[in-house]
C-alpha cells in the first residue's frame, strides 16, 4: 500500500460512520506495510474510543512488526494512548510484552492500570507467556511483587496460580532432598577409589 493510499484511508477514517471506519481499519491490516502500520498506530492517539479499540484489535493480530512500536507507545503522554497500547499488547499475548506491561502497574491513570490488569491476566492464560511474566514479577521489589500477585489473585486465582508456580520453582528445587543411594549402587568415590586400588595392586 503506497503512502497516497494510506493518506486517503486516514481521511476516510476521520469522516466516515463507525461501520465504514471499521471496514477501512480492516483494509489497512490486510496487507500491512510500514505506512499502513503507522496509520493504525496513529489511530491509538485519536480521541475516538471506537477507533482506538478497533485499531488495537487489528494491531494485536499483526505480531512482531508492531510489538516494538506498541511498547514505545506505553510511554505516551496521552493516557488513552497508553491504555490502547496496553490493550493491544494484552490481546497479542507475546511473551516479550510481559516485562513492559508489569512496569505499567504504577501508571498514574486508573484506566491505564485497569487495562494493565486485563492484559496481565491475558498473558497468565497464555502458557507460553507465563514464565516470562513470572520472571518480570520476580524482578520487582518485594512489596511491588506482593502487590502484583495479590492483584492477580483477586481477579483470577487460577491464572495467578500459574505465575506463582513458576515463582516457586527455584525454592522447590532447593527443598528437594538429595537422592539416597540404593543398595548395590556405586558412587563416584567407589569408582575412583576402585580404580586407584586396582592401579596400586598392579604395581
Description:
With 203 residues, the chain is an all-alpha fold. It has one domain: Leucine-rich Repeat Variant, CATH 1.25.10.10. 75% of the residues lie in helices and 0% in strands. The protein contains twelve helices and no strands. It has helices spanning 3-15, 18-30, 34-43, 49-60, 64-73, 79-92, 98-102, 110-124, 127-138, 142-155, 157-175, 188-202. The longest helix has 19 residues, at 157-175. The radius of gyration is 26 Å and the shape is elongated.
A few lines on this structure:
By secondary structure, this protein is mainly alpha-helical.
* Second CATH tier, the architecture: Alpha Horseshoe
What amount of the residues lies in strands?
A: under 5%
Radius of gyration: 26 Å
Please tell me the total number of domains.
Answer: 1
Q: Which structural class best describes the helix and strand composition? A: mainly alpha
How can the largest sheet be summarized? Answer: none
- Specify the CATH class: Mainly Alpha
Shape: elongated
Series of H and E elements: HHHHHHHHHHHH
Overall mean confidence score, pLDDT: 79
For the record, give the distance between the C-alpha atoms at the N and C termini, rounded to a whole number: 84 Å
CATH topology: Leucine-rich Repeat Variant
What is the secondary structure topology, with strand pairs?
Elements: H1 3-15, H2 18-30, H3 34-43, H4 49-60, H5 64-73, H6 79-92, H7 98-102, H8 110-124, H9 127-138, H10 142-155, H11 157-175, H12 188-202
Amino acid at each position: 500500500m503506497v503512502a497516497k493510499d494510506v493518506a486517503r484511508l486516514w481521511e476516510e477514517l476521520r469522516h466516515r460512520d463507525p461501520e465504514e471506519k471499521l471496514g477501512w481499519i480492516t483494509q489497512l491490516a490486510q496487507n500491512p506495510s510500514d505506512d499502513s502500520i503507522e496509520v493504525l498506530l496513529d489511530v491509538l492517539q485519536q480521541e475516538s474510543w471506537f477507533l482506538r479499540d478497533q485499531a488495537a484489535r487489528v494491531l494485536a493480530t499483526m505480531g512482531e512488526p508492531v510489538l516494538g512500536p506498541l511498547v514505545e507507545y506505553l510511554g505516551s503522554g496521552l493516557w488513552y494512548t497508553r491504555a490502547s497500547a496496553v490493550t493491544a499488547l494484552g490481546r497479542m499475548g507475546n511473551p516479550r510484552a510481559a516485562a513492559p506491561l508489569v512496569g505499567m502497574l504504577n501508571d498514574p491513570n486508573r484506566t491505564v492500570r485497569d487495562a494493565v490488569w486485563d492484559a496481565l491476566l491475558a498473558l497468565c492464560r497464555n502458557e507460553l507467556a507465563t514464565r516470562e511474566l513470572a520472571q518480570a514479577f520476580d524482578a520487582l521489589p518485594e512489596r511491588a511483587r506482593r502487590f502484583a500477585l495479590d492483584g492477580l489473585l483477586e481477579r483470577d486465582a487460577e491464572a495467578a496460580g500459574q505465575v506463582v508456580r513458576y515463582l516457586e520453582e527455584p525454592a522447590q528445587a532447593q527443598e528437594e532432598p538429595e537422592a539416597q543411594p540404593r543398595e548395590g549402587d556405586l558412587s563416584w568415590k567407589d569408582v575412583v577409589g576402585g580404580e586407584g586400588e586396582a592401579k596400586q595392586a598392579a604395581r
